[in-house]
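User: I'm writing a tutorial on reading structure tokens. Could you give me a worked example: one chain, its sequence, then its tokens, then a sentence or two explaining what the tokens reveal?
Assistant: Sure. Here is the example chain.
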Amino acid sequence: MPHPHLPTTESVVAAIRAIADEQRLEVEVTDDIGADRTSRRTSSGVFAVVDPDGSLPHEAYVELGGSPSLTVRVYPEDDAQVTVDGVQFDDVPRDAVPAFLRSVYGGLAHVKGRFFPPGWWLVVPLPGDETYKELVLVGLSPWMSARVRSKKG
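And here are its predicted structure tokens:
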């Protein structure tokens, strides 16, 4: 299922703000604008503000209040990093960020455990057949513990 296109960093931030309003969550946004301020711009020259093509890159870091602790770093390269209770999901497409957040806040995100090899996985299903899952490297937070799904045998 294709997600609505979000062409700019600001459009993603606006979509995140709308979800925060729906969920009644506080939101704090930090913007980094210019090639000299964004985190992935290693190829830009010293004191270069624009990219070689003349564009002005815009990166944003969004922190949402409430439980689970959730942050989103939106990169100018059309992707984002979403962190849920310390578990990082890298390379989430910019257009999928709103669906990702709705899955987390809508109760679809869950934790699966395995005996061998042992470990816990945070699973975030999106509409369609798109699913993100990451290994939980730290202990389970109270929010994650409440979302553990046991495997029915």
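What the tokens reveal: The mean pLDDT is 85. The longest strand covers residues 27-33.
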